[in-house]
Amino acid sequence: MRALTSLLVLLLAGHLFAQRKTENVLLVTLDGLRWQDVFTGADNRMMNKPDGGVKEIRQLRKDFYRGDAEARRALLMPFLWEVVAKQGQIFGDPSRRARAVLTNPHKFSYPGYSELLTGVVDERIKSNNKLPNPNVTVLEFLHGLPGYGGQVAAFSGWDVHEFILNEQRSGIFCEVAWDPATVARTPARLAALNRSARALPHYWGEWFCFDVVTYARAREYVLSETPRVLYLALGETDEWAHARRYDMYLQMARRNDEMVRDLWETMQGMEQYRGKTSLVLTVDHGRGRNERDWTDHGAEVEGAEEVWMAVMGPDTPPLGVREGVQATQAMVAATVAALLGEDLASVTPAAAGALPGVLR
What we know:
The two termini are 29 Å apart.
């Protein structure tokens, strides 16, 4: 009887796996983009000079402000609300009794990225120092599995990401900050990518570059190498928020949304990805809740632990904004693995499970 039961379980598991359609995952992070702006659109309290550092108030209100919250959010991030919300799921709206929170206490980038990429909180990680991550990320886990070797890549505007991903140990293809692009479809395309990057000022120094540079090289890599797992880390939203430029922060949120749309549509136009790719979109931390501290995050900033995430793909039921579902940032790693039919707990038993309901 026990043998029969085991056989039935194996047959059922095989049937469920056979039904799964996701063969590729696109993971995108938008650094420090607040849930408040995502779910309710531009915040009128910061659309001024003292609190938001806004240069052209009238134009900003024309571009981003409407009286209705749903209209504002669709204006800010049309792809998220016109496509992802209708075809997938979004977590983290407190008004729907559905908070999404960090489980690390630090509420800044390296601990946040490590949590979402590894599924666990490591108290040794409590700074943004360039120290190799001792934990295995979901990208490294996948890269080590049959069928994924050389098929996992990461692009980030922030140079610390190569340490978060432990590029040297993991072997993941990783380009960050102002690193020269090394892959393109043709030598001419590669030269054009690097020429465009060289034409831009190093506004934040050598450690962080404009999102357009990061995005362009990631898109080119997709067209050239067709990876199964691509991680794109965009970060200008965080930089403009720290600079108290709410106008630039909103502009980059919209432009990031456009980049995600373009990359998604580009991939859906390719045979390898069409109907076989899932998108996971999230952030590394939140920010303050009011006009005084919206620029900040960290252990002492109330609300900076509040985050959001979205999932869309052929195996994810179209449930829209989830209600009554509690989520943590640590669930992202297992979600990426589970969408591909892999179990992150096999290498990290303490990792949080996948986001509830994202798999049929």
